[in-house]
Design a protein that fits this description.
Layout: E1 4-5, H1 8-30, E2 35-41, H2 45-60, E3 64-70, H3 76-87, E4 94-97, H4 107-113, H5 125-133, H6 141-154, E5 161-165, H7 172-181, E6 185-189, H8 196-201, E7 205-208, E8 226-229, E9 233-236, E10 243-246, H9 251-254, E11 260-261, H10 269-288
Parallel strand pairs: 1-11, 2-3, 2-4, 5-6, 5-7, 7-8, 8-11
Antiparallel strand pairs: 9-10
Helix pairs in contact: 1-10, 6-7, 6-10
């Protein structure tokens, strides 16, 4: 058997197109564009690439993009002052502080300073709490993107056994909460879980977000299961001096067992920015008091 490939790039493209249509409608209703502010501290190359991609996608969707680039010598108080100004800026609907931050800055303090109603990354403890108790809030972009892919593939998820491998606040924990909200039976596993292969073999849905290249082997996968690989790991390539990207799942082996699987790259990765745009648009509607049908964005 050979698994169906879940094309996250195509799904993300469709989501971004739908967001752009809704942005045009919002602009007509509110007489302004939704605004996303991104704050980058330092010169981390990967972060710079992400920020450029977010800026481009924001503009293409018809939104306002506000970039704030600060030197790596920025103090915590200086960064917090920027965040507080953005909290009170009516043209800004979403605030994203790009992680990681330089060592002199406590990222937990920074996240806690962002207005929860502008926290389109979904990292604030208020939004984490809202997710845990089933209230409306903002969900971290990557797990919400994973859920969209799963529902597009499987439809109703109720009653399915799901294993989330990884327990981070950014992916693992919110992913588990989302799956619980869809009435799945959820296990959170991690690198120290006893008999991890046997735990994974029970799952109809496997979400791998542990950050270890190809840790999840093909013979761990239940035949016909749906596998969502969140991992992005750079490893040596076939040619000397070259590298390649692989996920947390051994794709070659798992794709011979699973019913469907996301590739790396081209699976979950493109969903993150698309969902960020979606969250920003939702925030703009809520802040402007412009109604929208739940599930339409």
């Amino acid at each position: 058997m050979s698994a169906d490939i879940i094309d996250g790039k195509a799904f993300a493209g469709d989501l971004r197109a739908r967001v752009a249509e809704k942005v045009a409608a919002f602009r007509a209703a509110a007489d302004r564009a939704p605004g996303l502010a991104v704050v980058l501290v330092g010169e981390d190359p990967a972060s710079q690439v992400y920020v450029r991609s977010k800026h481009k996608a924001t503009i293409e969707a018809g939104m306002e993009s506000f970039e704030h680039r600060l030197p790596d010598t920025t103090t915590q108080d200086e960064l917090l002052a920027v965040v507080r100004r953005l909290n009170t800026d009516d043209s800004v609907d979403g605030i994203l502080v790009q992680l990681p931050l330089p060592p002199q800055i406590d990222e937990n303090v920074v996240i806690a300073t962002i207005d929860p109603d502008k926290d389109v990354d979904g990292f604030h403890v208020v939004n984490a709490g809202r997710l845990a108790v089933g209230q409306h809030g903002y969900v971290p972009c990557t797990p919400l993107g994973c859920l969209m892919l799963l529902k597009d593939r499987l439809g109703d998820l109720s009653g399915l056994d799901a294993v989330v491998i990884g327990r981070s606040n950014i992916v693992g924990k919110p992913m588990a909460q989302l799956l619980l909200g869809e009435s799945c039976t959820v296990t959170i596993a991690h690198s120290r879980t006893r008999d991890l292969p046997d735990v994974v073999k029970r799952a109809d849905i496997v979400v791998a977000a542990v950050g270890r290249p190809e840790m999840i082997r093909g013979d761990w996968i239940k035949p016909g299961a749906t596998v969502i690989d969140v991992g992005i790991n750079r490893v040596p390539g076939a040619e000397p001096g070259k590298t390649k990207l692989v996920g947390d799942v051994d794709f070659a082996a798992a794709s011979q067992v699973a019913g469907a699987i996301t590739p790396v790259p081209g699976g979950v990765g493109p969903m993150t920015i698309a969902v960020l745009l979606r969250n920003t648009l939702v925030a703009a509607h809520r802040r402007a008091g412009v109604p929208y049908a739940k599930g339409s964005i």
